[in-house]
Batch of 2 targets.
Target 1
Amino acid sequence: MGKRKKSLLRKKLQLALVLTATVSIFLITVFSLIYFFRVVKVKAVETMNSSQKVAELIYKNKMNEVEYFALSQANSKALTILVDLDIPNRISQYLQEVVEREQMFHITVYNSDGNVLSSVGLSRSPIVRNSDDLNLASGELVQQAIAGKIVTTTERISGNTGEDLLSISSAVPLNRNNRLIGALLIRYVLNERNEIVSGIRDLLDVQAGIFLDTVPVSMVGSFELSTDISSILMSGEQLYKISRMWFGGNFARYSTLYDWKNRPVGALGIYVSADTYIMSFVNAVIAVAAIMIVLIVISFFGAYMISRNIVNPINKLVYGANKIRNGDLSYEIVVNLKDEIGTLSDAFNSMRIVLKEKISTIQEMNVNLESTVKERTEQIVGLLNKMRKYLSPQLYESISGGDRTVEVTHERKKLTIFFSDIKDFTSTTDSMEAEALSEVLNNYLDEMAKIALKYGGTIDKFVGDAIMIFFGDPEFIDDKTHAFRAVKMALEMKRRLVELREEWSEKGYTNEFHVRMGINTGYCTVGNFGSENRMDYTIIGSQVNLAQRLEAAAPVDGILLSYETHSLISDEIECKYNGEIMVKGIHYPIKNYQVLHVRGEKESYKRYLKQVEEGLVLKSIIIHNNMSREEKEDVLRALTVAKNYAIGKRSEHPKKQEV
């Protein structure tokens, strides 16, 4: 039985070593082949890109050659004299000699009015053979030459019924004694010449062709320009690339040929089969596969030798480990080796002794650990729940989440600050009992706090009936959003206070609360102020004071904004400019704006009305001199609707009344 286990362990070890070696060799081989494939493809792509640039240079060189020939003929004294004397027969005779000598050009001479004096070419030339079918006017090129300009370009010569031609054409002016006497047009017809593509093939060892639409006008080799690719090139694309690195694939580059007005007229293409590169890759695969097989055979032999020397000591270690696992901490493992396995056996024995001691200690410690942890956890949770009531939610989350350190530190930030205060709070509540005052005030502060948290405001403090809130720390979004949220919050607080007055009135509290609100945006110092043992998270600075002064200057149930806040929200909130005011502590006039309503809100007068089953309720309204025109209109409309309902529509159900 023991021999069978030893044999099984040896086989597993041998299998593991062989599999590891085989997988490693295989992965290295695969990655090597992938890398080689990518290198070959990159090299092929780079070669094609370079070849495409060289092909364009060869084509450009031919254009320069045509232009040089045209200039040399334009400088011929014999030709200029004949043109100046207007002798068409002698001009044709002269041009015929030039054409017969060069064997590649078609030459047309024009007088200064753009009329043809002579047009000569080889008899086998498509231009000569199909002259009646072709549109050879070339008015644009000739007019440029008569205007004194030299134009060399690729020209598409349209046929009326037959095929079109593609030509490298050069139009140059003819001058004599600094006087323009005509124009010379040289055409190198690509349909009849293969010098360009042959030169590209001989130099770059690629197939080459010049295409008119999808038709090859000059070609060495056999490849195509598809309709789709031609459409892409003719739509303005300068270059189209094909790189298919696989069996039967190819590498091709197509460059667009343009006329002198930068209009696509043809394409220059080069082509190479991918088979050459693929065969290089296949040969590499065969060589690497042979090396991989040799390495796998070697790994089999190495696995056999290693497993034989490891199995016996490991069996002893396994047996001793099983004894310890079963709780027999008195068993000692003995392996007489000086290598890592011998060190491992000594470590097992040391572990056995330490483990025996630790288990005893742990058993003693676990007796009271669970109850202690539970008790401490309950205390911590209770303290945290109490603490969060004294902090704004944003500050609490940043401290408990570890984002903010609890130390005396502060920074300068641009914030939007909000102040509100109940008008004549002391005189208004002087006749109220302390219990009733506490209920109403706490109800008011609770509702305002809910609205502040809804808009993401950080509640700095409650000072009696006054509320201080700011936006922009500890959570920052952007200045515009902070200002907009602050104003939206103030408007909702204003609407909620109207509802609260009705609720308090129904409970018998006749003293009405009306508030003033001020909002300012500017740079403040924000952070923890105080000592290491007692600190407050708050904001200070002149901009905070300005917000408080705006609140004090605001009309009853009104909201005043500073210029800075108004500039951030003016596209969202309708406001009224209140002019400039002087406030305490600031030695310059302050521009201020009164908030009216959110732009786009309709029927704002309805905030003064409430529909109930019994009829229509007209909410309490304070009319003062500082009301805006829109607020006055809303009050008048609300009163009109209430009046019409009272005297004209009592018989109708309240829900049908327009509100």
Target 2
Amino acid sequence: MNQTSDTLEFSYTNWRASFLRITLTGASIFGLVAVIPGVIGATSPIYAGLYVGVYLVLLLLTILSVSNSIKAAALTSLVFSLGVLGLTESGIRGDAPMFMLGAITIASLLFSWKAGWVVTLLTMLSFIISGWLVTSGTMLITSEEVTPGTVETWASGSTSVLLLATVIVNGIRLTQNEFGKAQYRAQTALGIAQSEKSTLEQRVEKRTQDLADANQVNEHRAQMFQAIAQVTRAIISTQNLQDLLPQVTQAISQYFGFYHIGIFLINTSQDYAVLSAANSEGGQRMLERNHKLRVGQVGIVGYAAGTAKPRIALDTGEDAIYFNNPDLPETRSEMALPLIQTGGQIIGVLDIQSTEPNAFNREDIEILITLADQVSMAIANALLYEKTQKNLLESEMLYRRDMQVGWKKFTHIQKIAGVRRVGMNTSLYKDSMKLPGAKEVMNSGTAYVKNDKTSQIIMPVKLRGETVGILNVKTNENRNWTDDQMDIITAIVERAALSIENSRLLAESRMAVEKERAISEISTKINANAQIEMILKTVVRELGNQIGDAQVSVEIESNEN
């Protein structure tokens, strides 16, 4: 069923309009066929004129654009008029009953069965009046071919018309009633169907809206997590804190589209949150004047730093006081997220500001907290990296210092300053050999080749990056040193330095072991005596044995002032 309620409600009216249109069109066509013999066979020119006039009125009704009610009334009147003309022309035995029944049928169909009874009553009145006038001789029938008839003839004809009219009107009434009932049932069914359809459409619309909202939320969350991934990728490769913080603010602003991103770090005294990086122009001005906020007291950043809890401020109510910052005049929403490292210690605050009112919801907070955790981890890693690098640098400097001191001590103890081989002879040197170019190589840490009448290679002897000696290779002829020769010399020098270092460490270890052994033996001998005199004698004796040619004295108490 594709009809709407309006179509069902006025379907009978539409049927009447269609019936009227077809009837007028058919009457106009076939009426022309009927009017010609009617005019020719008219008993008088008056009837001929009346027939022509009726047909012209019929044509006008068909052609003119007037309401269907006027057309229906006019058509009923024309047919009824033809019946009256028939009564005056040929009495009850002519065409009058047919026209009268036609008028009754048309009135019943185009109006209602009540209109059919009205026309039926008018028909009976016309029959009674015409029959009385004709049978009394008051009115003469113009047709010579038809007898006026008796009262019985008129009564019989009128009764026949009344019976047929009753059948027609009642039949139309019953048909209209059934049609009305069918129409009511159809409208009721359509109403139920439309109600169910409306309910279903509402449910579908609601479900569609719910899906659209869920899809929008999912898309928003996906974009947020994608932005977090982009920010994480942007900062994960940066280990230097001074480079990391500005990169974090720029990445968050770029991928999330926020107006201002600031990172505050808690100072060593834990009383101020100091702005350490920002992406906006206002933030740069704040950095220039070393902007800081007291922890737990000033602004939502101070609140987050003091409580380790997120805080949101909106451009409404009492929160509006937080936006009186001339450096950031466009801020309408602000969120401060604490940066907490492993162990629960707060190291700073991530300050996010937007130009849109009510820019943050609960889901944004949860996602941005995840981002804050990533930033906290990156900052903690950068701090740890800086601390580790500092410790490594200090350890390396200490190691180099100890190594240099150890090598000087080692060479002094070994009484070896260098060695030189000339031909088949090898000589050891206890004092500096004063090799040419040694000072330059020691300062630069790089080798160089000198070619004159002779050819020399002056190369630093390095151990873990520290120059501990000089290698000089000299020939009596001008020589072009190949890469293979240079690689061999470099490899041998490196292995020699490593072997000497191992020997030095082994010697130092043996010396440490010997020292500990000596201390342990002396301590054992001292502890074996209980008298002070024996203890003191043991001390000076053992120290004298260990030190060698030396005078050892111990004074317990001096009476000199």
